[in-house]
Amino acid sequence: MADLTLYHMAPSRSMTVRWMLEEVGQPYDVVLLNGGKNREPAYLAVNPFGKVPSLKHGDVVTTEVAAICCYLADAFPEAKLAIPIGDKRRGPYLKWLFFGPSCFETALFEHRLGLKDVPRGQVGWPELDKGLDEIAKTVKAGPYLMGDQFTAADVVIGSGLGWAMLMMKAIPERPEFTAYLSRINARPAAQRARAKDQELMAAA
Q1: Fold of domain 90-188
Q2: 61 exposure class (CB count in 10 Å sphere: 0-12, 13-18, 19+)
Q3: Are 34 and 9 a contacting pair, CB within 8 Å?
Q4: Is residue 45 helix, strand or coil?
Q5: d(CA 136, CA 17)
Q6: Which fold has domain 4-79?
Q7: What is the pLDDT of residues 164-180, one digit of tens each?
Q8: Among 26, 17, 11, which Cα is nearest to 70's?
Q9: Tens digit of pLDDT for each residue in 103-156?
């Protein structure tokens, strides 16, 4: 039994953490929660919200995609998926790591739901186009968000971009995004994670 256990559904945001685990390269177990198992008492004891993903490392449970990816990158520094504490680049790295769920994803749902009169001075995320412009500018300079180093931030932002642009067709197919996604989706870990989850979805 592995020290790492992913509580998982496919398709879901949990697929981002599956990719991250493949990048880390440590053995992990998977507990599948499709079919409503995420609402059963056994899982609610792990995550009271019944959401996926959750990651158990020994006796410690971490939830929320970006937090899990940050944790894994720091817990296994040999994978070189984090900017270490003490490096001034860690600030921008953390910004991008948490920009995905807190700003990009929120702005995307604001756009898709057609919400009007959002009080820009009070909410914590930018308009979708402004957020996309900033991502595009950074990945164009790339090849990754942190320059030459691929990090957990690329797993989080790349997963969100791929879902929004390729699966949901919810954002324009900008050339910067197409090139960036081609680079990161060609990574062996990304391909392994995708193949494993496609197998799960085919069997469902």
Answers
A1: Glutathione S-transferase Yfyf (Class Pi); Chain A, domain 2 (1.20.1050)
A2: middle
A3: yes
A4: coil
A5: 23
A6: Glutaredoxin (3.40.30)
A7: 999 999 999 999 999 99
A8: 17
A9: 999 999 999 888 888 888 888 889 999 999 999 999 999 899 999 999 999 999
